[in-house]
Amino acid sequence: MSVRILGPVTLCVIATLVGTLFVLVSTESTYAAAACGLVGLLATAVMYDSAVHGGIRGDLPVMSPPPMAPDYAVDLLDRPEIDALIEALPQPAFIVSAGCIARANRATLALLGRHVLGQDVRLAIRHPAVTQHLAGDSAGTEPVSMELVGIGAADQSWELRIAPLSEQRQIVLLTDQSARQAEARMRVDFVANASHELRTPLAGILGFIETLNDREAGNDVATRERFLSIMEGEARRMQRLVDDLMSLSRIEADKFRQPEQSVDLCALAQETAEVLARSGTPRAHDLALDLDLGCPLIRGDSGQISQLLHNLMSNALKYGRPGTPVAVTIQRDGEDAVRLAIADEGDGIAPEHLPRLTERFYRVDSSRSRAMGGTGLGLAIVKHIVERHRGRLRIDSVVGRGTTVSVMLPVPVDPEAPAEQRPRALVGTPVI
Ligand code: ADP
Q1: Which helix (H) or strand (E) holds 102?
Q2: Mind listing the pLDDT tens digit for each residue in 13-34?
Q3: Domain hosting residue 236, numbered range
Q4: Are residues 208 and 141 in the same domain?
Q5: Can you tell me the distance from the alpha carbon of 252 to that of 380, in angstroms, rounded to the nearest whole number?
């Protein structure tokens, strides 16, 4: 490319010629004319040199600028690194240019749809804050951050961060806040539920103490014995609750520590059934064990596996119909797992409750659960134990027929076996 704007070099040459002729005519001295010509040529040479190196534009091809200059000249949006950069961000990210979405990563397209590329940002995200900060003349020049609800799922909440890139351009980052908020809500609910569960028996105990302090009622032997027995029941309920809460927090604390003991699931099932029978658990004799004693050992925490067996057998005995068997089966489940199934013949659980059964304090029938000494934490504990053992939990139930709770636990990997023969760990979210 050549640019033609002005001709200082040409002018200089003409001035040199005219000057030389004038000196020759006026002085008639060839020396003086030669000196004038030389000075003129020198000036032309200097002029030419600065045109080449100093950027004076003349009848010359434009010289290459320093190496970095062309990169700066390329539009930001045409730079290939921009796509790679926003694609590297895990959350939805996009660039708005003059009020339209000019670049967007895959997470954005998955959230808002492919059609948003090139679209007016006000149509892509219909929210007053977007108009205020991203569109038109009102687009700000300061970074802003705000909470938005309603992008994606109706109740999904997002943090929207806008950082200006230039006067007409902004980069926008969307961070999903739903999980964090749900976690915070769960923590608050948990504390409220735990306090409520403890406060109820505590209030009962305090009421009975007050009554017994009354001279007349306290001296009546029959009343005193009845009240003391109720108080003992309430105190034991509180103790069970505190025990379950402690178990839950211990299991959670060990969440990322792999259990290391070799555990014989069949032996533990037999032991748990005996403990239940010895401790006078109602219907313990209804437990019917069908165990494949040839099952491989699992790698686990025997205390936690005993607790899992205890909670599931107790539930099946509690919620099964009196006089019906509770079938406890342990068998191999393919090459890489052992399966425990505990089936009762009870009222069953309606499908809408199934996904919530492992939440802390969730009960299908609260008064029935409390009447049976339940804390509402049994299945939450089971779920956490299964997760720590990298197993899977499944609850099948038919209303009016009964419930089967199955736990699949992975058998340990043999480090000597060739890779293709090694059983895989049952990693993943427990299935219910
Ligand atoms: P709980 O201490 O109340 O038994 P769990 O966490 O063990 O608490 O169980 C939660 C709820 O799930 C129970 O309150 C009960 O409603 C229901 N449930 C658990 N196991 C069974 C079962 N085998 N049959 C019917 N319902 C069950």
Answers
A1: strand 100-104
A2: 677 677 667 666 666 666 666 6
A3: 177-253
A4: no
A5: 11
